[in-house]
Amino acid sequence: MTVSITHCWKNVQSELNATGRASFWLRALFLCAVWSAFFTGPAWAQSPSISSVEVTELRVEKSEGALLLQSSLRLELSGAVEDALQKGMPIYFLSEAELSRDRWYWYDKKVGAATRHYRLAYQPLTRVWRLNVSRDPIGATGLTSSLSQTFETLPEALSAIRRTVNWKLAEATDIDGDNKYTLIFKFKLDVSQLPRPFQMTAGGQAEWNIAVQKTLRLTSDVVR
């Protein structure tokens, strides 16, 4: 900015010596605007960052008489979502897993499922991040029925959301090794839990578009 002001002032002095006062101010304003735009650039030229999410690990293990889900996400929040969090607005995420058995004569049969609802919020007074996790929608049941954790930084809070460890999908006795099974895993930002004004706008904006789905066919060594 110092370079911009220096060049601008030199041009202003040159114009003052060469022209009358009537045209001086118009030329001076034009020159300053050109130099400022050259060195700083328009604010809208910088595109906002985009949220992204990817399933990096998805597997099912049989342990202690049950089928357990393990998963990992690569989750990055856009500047718009982080800004809303910093201003105190809670953000909700939903993670779902459904296990089904193939049936050639009808729709696949659901044999197991697991769901987690997340509420992530920043508390300015204590400067901590609070994460609530529940099997039921937190907006409907409130925070009393959820598990609460606090973190000092946003990356630490997001790490707790990114990993799924030992989610029970079904009892091992409900699984027949002679059949084929499919797991469908979904993760998304739950726009329906946002304040109503955001529900109307966030759904159509790329900065708020956080959703992923992955399908896994279970191998015989898992279901047997």
Describe the structure concisely for a colleague.
By secondary structure, this protein is α+β, with helices and mostly antiparallel strands.
How many angstroms separate the termini? 69 Å
Total strand segments: 9
Shape: elongated
Share in β-strands: 35-45%
* SSE sequence, one letter per element: HHEEHEEEHEHEEHEH
Number of helices: 7
User: How many domains make up the 3D coordinates?
Assistant: 2
Side-by-side strand order of the widest sheet? 6-5-4-3-8-9
What level of helicity do the residues show? 25-40%
Secondary structure class reads alpha+beta
Characterize the largest beta sheet: strand count, sense, and whether it forms a barrel: 6 strands, antiparallel
Which consecutive residue ranges, at least 5 long each, have pLDDT under 50? 1-9, 28-48
Determine the mean pLDDT.
81
Please tell me how large the radius of gyration is: 27 Å
